[in-house]
Design goal:
Blueprint (H helix, E strand, L loop, with lengths): L11 H10 L4 E4 L2 H12 L8 E4 L5 H9 L3 E4 H10 L12 E7 L7 E6 H15 L10 E4 L6 H12 L3 E4 L7 H8 L3 E4 L1 H14 L3 H19 L8 H12 L7 E4 L6 H11 L2 E6 L9 E2 L12 E2 L4 E5 L12 E7 L11 H7 L6 E9 L5 E6 L4 E2 L5 E2 L1 H8 L5 E7 L7 E7 L4 H7 L6 H6 L1 H17 L8 E6 L19 H7 L1 H12 L1
Parallel strand pairs: 1-2, 2-3, 6-7, 8-9, 9-10, 20-21
Antiparallel strand pairs: 4-5, 10-11, 11-12, 13-14, 14-15, 15-16, 17-18, 19-20
């Protein structure tokens, strides 16, 4: 059986598209509401292939009757288990080349693409992680994983595969990210996979609570002492500084975490280094995408430097190829990251055109990311080939790189950088962080509610100055710096259609949504 994960936040249109594209005759739902959505599509004649729905939570007989009328059998999970007991089948172990998952990437543009992942892909990726980390970390049946990342995300699936293969346990969070810290304290996990967004929040919260210059100095001093140990390859949580300064931070995650892995998006070197010192556990950073199952590079044990995504994993060969229009040349150790190996996917389901764009004739996956080899053999992701655009003078802009720089501004939660080929400069829509804005503004001499501060033109100038300063420190060129911003009070989210289910920006939708504000920023600049 091939598994096709469906995000409940995809929306009716995308769900209909996936059900038809993947010929899904059977769908599992957790809640009756989702079954109703699926039945509505069948009743409209939009998904004729669907004939069975299994619901995990309790539901009324009206759903069963409604299903009968349109030719869909509706079962409870318990009924399905009973059917299995009374109709036992001989096990059919899969072959390496058999499909395991068709993972639809939540496209930032156009229809979702179904990445075909085989059993070989999954086994090679999971075993490569175990091989890379075996000298310093070996999972055991005593380990506990906290699962809060989407199960439709290959990163989470590979982590769970590693854990289950070693007889360890998995605890699933309550479903509300705001209660994650409560779940961590209750479960006391030993393995904690994370995404940079959560790390940034942890970092900001820790420094936000260090509300006096003495506390901040002690935090900096303690982390510098432990950073010196990290540079020597020492990872521990029993030093003097752990007992005096960092014990509370470690306890907030349950107090037993011994492995953390971050991936899915870039993480700032300063954030990663600080959290490695504060948490005192093995903390790896990886890089990859759905098309290479999950990861293709990973930090090496003993190298706890930040600012790179490690070395190629045992399942991957990585090369860089020229991107001449952006002046990245492989001869200089820079170029588009290309990956080959048993973890590279088979292609996109029923989409030879898109498959040919991603996989060349020699089997190399072209990731669309720009990488650079560092002297120690690690890979650094420095830019993005996709989503690039030109400004009026012909400079190429990679907005995601710029956004990741500006997200280091303490006052900001989200940033959308925009430019146009007829304009000479960039503008941005920023969403100030509701948790940090008021304290940050107070230091600048401003007071008021979140909404009032977001409307304050003088505060806007301070935020823009902070963005430009951080941009300079991070090496942004002058044409990569935004010249004006608009402050927006509502977070970009999956619900308002501005983020994909993996929390990536839907750039065309963002542009459309903020078009009037963008036009105004450009018009004001000409006055």
């Amino acid at each position: 059986m091939v598994v096709v994960p469906l995000y409940d936040t995809l929306g009716t249109e995308a769900i209909t598209y996936i059900v038809n594209k993947a010929d899904l005759s059977l769908v599992f739902c957790d809640k009756p509401d989702k079954a109703k959505l699926l039945l509505t599509n069948v009743e409209k004649g939009e998904t004729p292939i669907l004939n069975t729905i299994v619901i995990m939570e309790s539901f009324g007989m009206d759903l069963v009757e409604r299903g009968k009328k349109c030719g869909v059998e509706v079962f409870s999970m318990r009924e399905l288990e009973e059917l299995g007991r009374s109709h036992r089948q001989k096990p059919m172990p899969p072959k390496p080349e058999d499909l395991a998952v068709i993972c639809f990437t939540s496209g930032t543009t156009g229809d979702p693409k179904g990445a075909m992942i085989t059993h070989q892909n999954i086994v090679s990726n999971a075993s490569a992680f175990v091989k890379t980390t075996e000298k310093t970390f070996m999972p055991s049946s005593d380990d506990v994983l906290i699962s809060f990342l989407p199960l439709a995300h290959m990163f989470e699936r590979i982590v769970e595969c590693v854990v289950l293969c070693h007889g360890a346990r998995i605890g699933f969070f309550q479903g509300d990210i705001r209660l994650l810290m409560d779940d961590l304290k209750t479960l006391q996990p030993t393995i904690f996979p994370v995404v940079p967004r959560l790390l940034n929040r942890m970092f900001d919260k820790i420094f936000g609570q260090a509300d006096t210059s003495l506390k901040r100095w002690m935090l900096d001093f303690a982390s510098k002492r432990k950073e010196a140990e990290l540079r020597s390859g020492i990872v521990r949580n029993n030093s003097f500084w752990d007992k005096v300064i960092f014990r509370k931070i470690q306890a907030s995650l349950g107090g037993k975490v011994r492995l953390m892995v971050t991936g899915a998006a870039p993480v700032s070197a300063s954030v990663l280094t600080f959290l490695r010192t504060a948490l005192g556990c093995q903390f790896y950073e990886g890089y990859g995408q759905t098309e290479c199952t999950a990861g293709c590079s990973l930090s090496l044990p003993g190298d706890w430097t930040a600012g790179h995504v490690g070395a190629p994993m045992p399942c991957s060969i990585i090369k860089l190829v020229d991107v001449q229009e952006m002046n990245y040349l492989a001869a200089k150790g820079e170029g588009e990251v290309c990956v080959k190996g048993p973890n590279v996917f088979r292609g996109y389901l029923k989409d030879p055109e898109k498959t040919a764009e991603a996989l060349d004739k020699d089997g190399w996956l072209h990731t669309g990311d720009i990488g650079k080899w560092l002297p120690n053999g690690t890979l650094k992701i420095i830019d993005r080939k996709k989503h690039i655009f030109k400004l009026a003078q012909g400079e190429y802009i990679a907005p995601e790189k710029i956004e990741n720089v500006y997200l280091r501004c303490e006052a900001l939660a989200q940033v959308f950088v925009h430019g146009e080929s007829l304009q000479a400069f960039l503008v941005a829509v920023v969403v100030p962080d509701p948790e940090t804005l008021r304290s940050w503004a107070k230091k600048k001499g401003f007071e008021g509610s979140y909404e009032e501060l977001c409307r304050n033109k003088d505060l806007k100038k301070h935020i823009l100055e902070d963005m430009v300063m951080i941009g300079k420190e991070s090496g942004l060129k002058s044409f990569e710096q935004v010249k004006d911003i608009v402050m927006h009070t509502e977070m970009f989210s999956i619900e308002n259609g501005l983020l994909t289910p993996t929390l990536k920006a839907k750039r065309p939708e963002l542009r459309k949504y903020f078009q009037s504000q963008i036009d105004e920023l450009y018009a004001n600049a000409k006055m």
